[in-house]
Amino acid sequence: MGEATHKILVVEDDRQIQSFIGYALEQDGFCSLSANSGHSAMSLLISEPIELLLLDLGLPDCDGMEIIKRVREWSDMPIIVVSARDQDREKAAALDAGADDYLTKPFSATELLARIRVAIRHLRRQSGEKPQAVYQVGELKIDMEKRLTYLRGEELHLTPMEYNLLALLFKNCGKVLTTQYIIREVWGVGYGSDTQALRALMAALRRKIEKNPAKPRYIVTEIGVGYRLVDE
Ligand code: CA
Q1: CA–CA dist 63, 57 (Å, integer)
Q2: How far apart are the first and last CA of the chain?
Q3: Distance from the CA of 230 to the center of ligand 1, in angstroms?
Q4: Phi, psi of 16 (to 5 degrees)
Q5: Of 11, 31, 131, 175, which sits most exposed with the smallest number of CB within 10 A?
Q6: Is the Cβ–Cβ distance between 42 and 18 less than 8 Å?
Q7: pTM
Q8: How far is the CA of 231 from the centre of ligand 1 (A)?
């Protein structure tokens, strides 16, 4: 399955951004469709074999969030949200509603295409028969069957919680995970929003895997939203 077969729906009411995205996708061999309102987006989503959705949150006739919720009722297609710089809350809410990633305007074509490739890779992994057991990013490696982690070939000594956090990030490599999502997955439902505990756990994990925890190379902070394990 070549990348050219992926049909991407670009929902954006700003004509300039719409044509910038359309051009970038075309140059990279992607096939794209465009919609400039929530209404036309929904009718294309129902009638066309869309495989990835690039969605502007601020649409003239509806909130992009509504589209995320509706699509998630029937599809696992990757959804990448496009939003303005000062909408951290919205980004987190969009991710919690089921979006896979977000791009902040203005963004470059390189950034856009990189995010799309990550999303498509995840789609392939999900549809693969067997979940991967060993993942590696740079010099950081995890073996999920054996529950072992390595840095530069040496075994890391992580606590069970640190391991769970790192494994979660590896399973979602390249994707931004919201603080709420991480807390729910690592501590479980009912743990509320103990962001302090997550910050402490993250600091401990970074001390073990990052050369300079203040300038992390592997786990980056997405300010106001969450964390992302860098996909190389
Ligand atoms: Ca808009």
Answers
A1: 6
A2: 22
A3: 28
A4: -65, -45
A5: 131
A6: no
A7: 0.76
A8: 28
